[in-house]
Amino acid sequence: MKKLLFLLLVVLCANRVLPQSIPSGASGVFSEIHSLPYDNGTIVYFSYRIPYNFLVFEKTDNGAYKAGFTLNVEASDSLAKNIKRAGDDKDIVLEEFAKTNSVKDYVQGVVQIVLNSKETYTISPYFTDKSSFQDFKVRPQKVVYKSPPYCSPIVIEEAPTVCEQASKILLANYNGDIPFEEKSFNLILPVKDTSIKFLDVMVENNGDTVFTGRLSESFLAGIQLTECDKKVIIDFDKKNETRNFVLKNVTASIHEGPVTICILDTAKRIISSFRLNSVWNNKPFALMNYEYAIKALKFIESDNVIDSLLSYASEKYQRVLFDYWKKYEKPGKTKFNKLMTEYYQRVDYSAMNFRTIGNKNGIETDRGKIYIKYGAPSKTERTSSEKGKIIEIWLYKSNGLKFSFVDKTGNGDFTLMK
């Protein structure tokens, strides 16, 4: 087991519309709304993030790939008497075809609407893809003019970004949720009453209290969301100031799942709360079912260990599995385990790419088992035997390993040659 984990760690260290898949609804769009004080009213910021694989790209005459969309945001009161609109229009040009299917590359932006009427407004955004002409709507949200003194938390990346030769704070921009990943994130908690000097805060995650403490670090400024170098950043102004408290590295203590941020009074009673989620974007499919994920350890672990993990109640499988992998990962700033993620990404790849014509699960094939243990080979070669059978050779430069597989039956089930 230790040898296999060591090896795992080593590997870590013509014009036409391209057939991109567009999900029903707007499940491919991340968006969030933040309402903040503005003069005698409220300013509403609608920010969005769209992965490239959600858009339809067309190949241009010069060989590049182009996509685009328009955004319309409508704010209407309960009687639809007061309606305000804002919009955006963007084009994306890529040189590499592979990026058109990327879930890690994206376009993002922000629009704003100022609301002066003392009403409750419904914010209704929708996008139109320029290539497919398909409309996709984002779930409407309500903005209440007479909102409580505590504004919704703003999730930001802990590490600053450089934009226009200046250090800037980057908005996470994932539906207002906290990304569960290797990077760490902070929360800005804006308060309208600028005389408040501290906040008592409690953070709950999956029903457990993971943080309780007093926040005294704050700054006085008017918060603005703007675009800079194709990113959405937090900027500041001396107008419309709020007292902004910072909850640093909130991701240090939370796992994937529901998160509640509670504001407490001096008697430790909850006076305001905000529900968020810690969301694992691009989570390996094998980890969608934790019982399956534990059983998938069979390629590197003994039956006794797996049986021991499965002896716990099913609702504890997630925590048990994370505890198992924690032993083999150096402590980081978050609960995210890079080694575990890499392993289950390999399980996913094997299941998808090594399935045989006879429908044998790819993880049960010899190529799948080797891939799960050692990852992608440095080099792959194909040849044939004297009997005309296809032979596939995998070479690993980092550890000098070599594996040869032969397709004896011609159905894609390559067996490991001894």
Description:
The protein is globular. The model is unreliable at 9-26 (pLDDT under 50). The chain starts with a helix and ends with a strand. It is built from six helices and 24 strands. Strands 3, 4, 5, 7, 8 and 9 form a six-stranded antiparallel beta sheet that branches. Helices cover 14% and strands 42% of the residues. Helix 5 runs antiparallel to helix 6. The chain has helices at residues 2-12, 290-295, 303-310, 317-326, 338-353, 366-374, and strands at 30-38, 41-51, 58-59, 65-77, 83-94, 106-115, 120-129, 135-137, 141-144, 154-157, 161-163, 166-170, 178-179, 185-191, 199-205, 208-215, 218-228, 231-247, 257-264, 270-279, 379-384, 390-396, 401-406, 415-416. With 418 residues, it is mostly beta strands.
Number of helices: 6
Main sheet overview: 6 strands, antiparallel
- Topology as a string of helices (H) and strands (E): HEEEEEEEEEEEEEEEEEEEEHHHHHEEEE
The gyration radius over C-alpha positions equals 25 Å
> Strand content of the residues, in percent?
35-45%
Kindly report how far apart the N and C termini lie: 22 Å
- What is the residue-mean pLDDT, rounded to a whole number? 89
Could you give the count of β-strands? 24
Q: Which parts are unreliable, with pLDDT below 50 for 5 consecutive residues or more?
A: 9-26
Helical proportion, percent range = 10-25%
Bulk shape: globular
Structural class: mainly beta
